[in-house]
Amino acid sequence: MNKTPYEVLGVSKTATEDEIKAAYRKLAKKHHPDLNPDDKKAEDKFKDISAAHGFLSDKKKREAYDRGEIDADGKPKGPGNSQTSDQGNRQYYRDFAGGPGGERYYSSANNINPEDLDGIFGSMFGGKKSGTSFEDLFQQQQSADVHYRLNIEFMETALGAKKQVVMPDGKNLKIAIPEGVNEGQKLRLKGQGKKMKDGRQGDAYVEIHIAPHKLFARKLNDIFSEVPIGINEAILGDTIEVETIHGSVNVKIPKSTDSGKRFRLKGKGIKGGNHYVDVKIVIPNEVDEDLEKALKNWAEKHDYNPRKEKRKENA
Amino acid sequence: MRRIDEVLAEIDHFVDRAILEDFIARGWVCPLRDQIDYVFEEVDISRIRLVCELHIDMKFEVETVDLILSLMDQLYKNKALFERLVKALEEQPEDVRNAVLKSFKENIPPN
Question: What pLDDT shows up at residue A154?
Fold first, then answer.
């Protein structure tokens, strides 16, 4: 007899929703087919676990099952149990990872390349290289598709751009860089590969590499930068101009702004992302008489010591 | 090859374009792009499902998902290398194959 959904998840009939979820997570982590690529049984186990979780997470079904109104052999049947059949027909990442598309995912989108093989076999054979390198072998096996790497400017990736570039093999390509394209992403240019003798026309694949920018850093669609402010601006407040990828904008610096304070410029990042600007207080290279006098005057009248303030905060 | 809207309709988890673009930006999913938009192959769709299960169902944190996918990708890379090595061996004369297999078995550590 098949196990009941409760038995599959290893929970009691009185288990709460949270207990069921927790049990599912624990078992799914252990038996997910993609986390057990060579274990054929993992798929069946994961199917049962997912079906049991799907069944018990459905309050109505669970209640009906507990009342004995629907199938009690642990394998839910009838309408509404699509999870079982979905899971049955489903394919996992491991089913495709070994195929041609799977190569895109190998170690940060790096394909298997001749250097990998030379490295492995180089160490296997005591560093001796044979007359024919693996690079030569790969060249012979090349398909109609061609692969390029392209270094592009930060701003071209942030805002998108149209480029015409000449590749190392002399091929002239017109490329539309999509806005917000990511490091390592591959663009497919249909029909821009090699024309083979058998009539096949390959595609060109261009792997994007982004040059760092002197002002901006990027995380997902958000932009980060640092802007210097004077001590007068930090203390008295002011409105300053800040460069963003969409041009300069005015930012209001409130009175008493500390170094490192972060301001969010909503929607000024990539594709609606934000721009975060950190202010950095910069003191003048030369302290003139006026500044010195003003500060001395202030210091004489105030007992201000930031280290003491800090100690007070920590106390 | 499918477009983003078709993929979103196909995925059981609640994933919208912004979430999917976040997966892409993190490098978890690497669809190809043509001059219009992303294009997804079966491998990408199964990868999205996997990411959803890891991150949404199993509640793995971002850093853990990064780690799992990185290890998984290294595993598949090595598997692919191994398969190519086996293919290369299959193309060798029988005595070469036998010699390599014999040596290989001798070098497998005991359980």
Answer: 93
